[in-house]
UniProtKB/TrEMBL annotation:
Transmembrane segments: none annotated. Its EC number is 2.8.2.-. It holds the Pfam family Sulfotransfer_1. This is Sulfotransferase. The lineage of its organism: Eukaryota, Viridiplantae, Streptophyta, Embryophyta, Tracheophyta. PANTHER family: SULFOTRANSFERASE SULT. Residues 57-318 form the Sulfotransferase domain.
Length: 321
């Protein structure tokens, strides 16, 4: 039901007045809400999502910070779940960007409508979100049997990837130039970036995973790069659709790994030319796909600074990058 007592626009206007504000790397405003920084235009969808989304027990939620491997995880989850629906050579990924197949809750579904009807989506429904775990996810995601798969990545690569993404999608109409690398990096180290601080985002899902590993799977981009076969099996088991011996013998896991590989997806026509809702270039989601590209952009001092932040924030958590 839509709350008509206050128009959402007024509610949000009033809320924003009370929040600390900063300027994002691209010059747009960021607001701090319950400890995390969000771009202004996501407030309405974020609040609608929190208020209206009802998770089903069979739902699968793919969660991440931006630039941590969301696109890859979407491709993998889609292909694993639908492996008996489409033969590999007819997989919709061959013609659609992964973000068009698995919608983002706050960036897509709840940004199009206050209260979208998601009932018609066949089970298991797969959605993505960049929202932090703590207090932000609707209660039904935490309280239902639905499963969450979180992917994170070395913050240095996440930062590097984010800057390129911003530059790649900058339109000619953008009046404000992005910040210099040094300034953007300094803000990142203070946790001021969309959905940041990154350490709280990662720790929130890490602790949820430790508390209930059957409900929250915690993945690292670097681990998937190291041994994708192992993680495809792990994701399938976690989602409740493990590969049979017969499927393994047929080489289905390797076929899915190849279909979802960076090289394959990047070179598909749809990902070279298309865009997402006219705003983001499909190609901008496939840049280098490497571990450690940060060494080409960050100085050793910058790396040392991030490492120290991680050491202090992750101390005692069991998390390492
Ligand atoms: P780089 O910018 O370092 O290349 P997200 O999907 O969360 O936006 O993250 C984007 C990052 O994941 C980009 O990193 C992108 O190249 C990489 N990526 C996209 N698809 C991938 C795939 N299939 N395999 C490995 N990396 C992928």
């Amino acid at each position: 039901e839509v709350d008509n007592t206050n128009s959402p626009k007024d509610e949000i206007h009033e809320l924003l007045q009370t929040l600390e504000q900063q300027t994002n790397w691209d010059g747009s405003p960021l607001f701090k809400y319950n400890g995390y920084w969000f771009p202004q235009h996501f407030f309405r969808p974020i609040l609608s999502f929190q208020k209206h989304f009802k998770a089903k027990d069979s739902d699968i939620i793919l969660a991440s910070s931006p630039k941590s491997g969301t696109t890859w995880l979407k491709a993998l989850a889609f292909s694993i779940v639908n492996r008996n629906v489409y033969p590999i050579n007819q997989n919709p990924l061959l013609n659609c960007n992964p973000h068009a197949l698995i919608p983002s809750l706050e960036r897509h579904l709840y940004s199009l409508q206050e209260h979208p009807n998601l009932q018609h989506i066949p089970n298991p429904r797969i959605f993505s979100t960049h929202m932090p775990f703590s207090t932000f996810l609707p209660d039904s995601i935490r309280d239902s049997e639905c499963k969450t798969i979180y992917i994170c990545r070395s913050p240095m690569d996440m930062f590097t990837s984010g800057l390129h993404f911003l530059l790649e999608n900058k339109t000619q109409n953008d009046t404000v130039l992005p910040l210099e690398l040094n300034e953007a990096f300094d803000m990142f180290c203070h946790g001021i970036h969309p959905y940041g601080p990154f350490w709280d985002h990662i720790l929130g899902y890490w602790n949820a995973h430790l508390k209930n590993p059957e409900k929250v799977l915690f993945l690292k981009y670097e681990d998937l790069k190291e041994d994708i076969t192992f993680y495809i099996k792990k994701i399938a088991e976690f989602m409740g659709c493990p590969f049979s011996l017969e499927e393994e013998k047929q080489g289905l896991i390797e076929q899915i790994a190849k279909l979802c590989s960076f090289e394959n997806l990047k070179n598909l026509e749809v990902n070279k030319t298309g865009n997402i809702r006219g705003v983001l270039k499909n190609s901008s989601f496939f840049r280098k796909g490497e571990v450690g590209d940060w060494t080409n952009y960050l100085t050793p001092d910058m790396a040392e600074r991030i490492k120290k932040i991680m050491e202090s924030k992750f101390e005692g958590s069991g998390l390492m990058f």
